[in-house]
Amino acid sequence: MTDKGEIPAADSLPQLAVRYVTALLGDESARECLAAEEECPQADMPAALRGDISYSQAWTQMRDRIFAIGDESYGLAPQPLHPGHFDLHIGIMCHGKDVQGALRRFVNVSHLIRPDFDVHVHKRRDMLEVSLRLHGPASPVRDIYHEVYAVVLHCALRWMTGEAIHAAHVRAAPPPPGIENTFVTVLSCPIRREGTGVTLCYPLAAGDLPILPVKLGRLGAVPIGQFMRELRSLHVPDQPAGGRSETRRRVETILARESLGAEAVARRLGLSVATLRRRLGDEGVSFREITTEMRKTLVTALIESGQPFSDIASELGFSDERSFRRACTDWFGMNPARYRQAILSRQGQSGLG
């Protein structure tokens, strides 16, 4: 359990270099830095490009940038792609019978409304492969965009199926000099670094997973907390077990994707509530303790993302902002404003804001 006053990591996701993220957002200095043949020393970079940024901050800034400039392609398409283009892709995919059918629809609609984007789906031996690549010469910024697009598509497939789909491996371009983590690192699978573009490789059986008869709504309107849950759930199965039982790991995987009570989680696992509680109790942890720890981690990620506290309180189901503030003080020994300041101070930089 986290002691009051201790500042935990915002989530288990890898940190990203500030210059890596800001290059996609249009910072010319960052783009020049990434395009260099050798790693740019930190001392030679503008101060604003130094250090790392959390995944939650990166995704929040990218989403905000799209709406600020009115272009989902971040200036990489021949014409601006007004917010809603990717929502159209997802809406059409939802009409597929299964993952394979959804991906076929994705390819077809991409050819119609994204002629600048090569998208292909192939069956190769025991794999279902989805490849994504922008037309034109390769560049670090294009490769970042490929990875962002691939991660969002992967999360959309998980939302559409309600299943914890995992990529068997990914092929992506080599990272720029000095960049350790890239966006596809979050997929927690082997990454083969070669060429340009991104190829997601799934077990062939994933293509048969049915698409749920639900509407996602506008993907751009999905709360950042829900998206962060999905990203964090990509990491849970691949974290070191650390003595955790299979039952606890499965519970954490489910709770990383959505907030559910013990009865609903037990039903997902094919267990009675009593059996679930007994198995968790055998390793000295309760269902409530697990949910509290995971909720604290998500709260930290959202506070770090820069969202207004009232929005965070509403998104996480607190009755009002006052209740949210009380929970933060109880969990972390400080109110949300001080906690956010402490997180940013720990990082040694103020993010992209």
Describe it for me?
There is one protein chain. The chain is an alpha+beta fold. It folds into two domains: 16-208, no CATH class; 223-347, Arc Repressor Mutant, subunit A, CATH 1.10.10. The protein has helices at residues 18-24, 28-35, 55-69, 85-93, 99-113, 140-161, 224-235, 246-257, 262-269, 273-281, 287-305, 309-315, 321-332, 336-347; strands spanning 16-17, 52-53, 117-124, 127-134, 169-172, 191-193, 198-203. The strands form two sheets. It has a five-stranded mixed β-sheet, covered by helices on one side. The chain has a two-stranded antiparallel sheet with strand order 1-2. The longest helix has 22 residues, at 140-161. The chain is globular. The chain starts with 15 loop residues before the first strand and ends in a 6-residue tail after the last helix. The relative contact order is 0.14.
Write the layout of secondary structure elements.
Layout: E1 16-17, H1 18-24, H2 28-35, E2 52-53, H3 55-69, H4 85-93, H5 99-113, E3 117-124, E4 127-134, H6 140-161, E5 169-172, E6 191-193, E7 198-203, H7 224-235, H8 246-257, H9 262-269, H10 273-281, H11 287-305, H12 309-315, H13 321-332, H14 336-347
Parallel strand pairs: 5-6
Antiparallel strand pairs: 1-2, 3-4, 4-7, 5-7
Helix pairs in contact: 1-2, 1-6, 3-11, 4-5, 7-8, 9-10
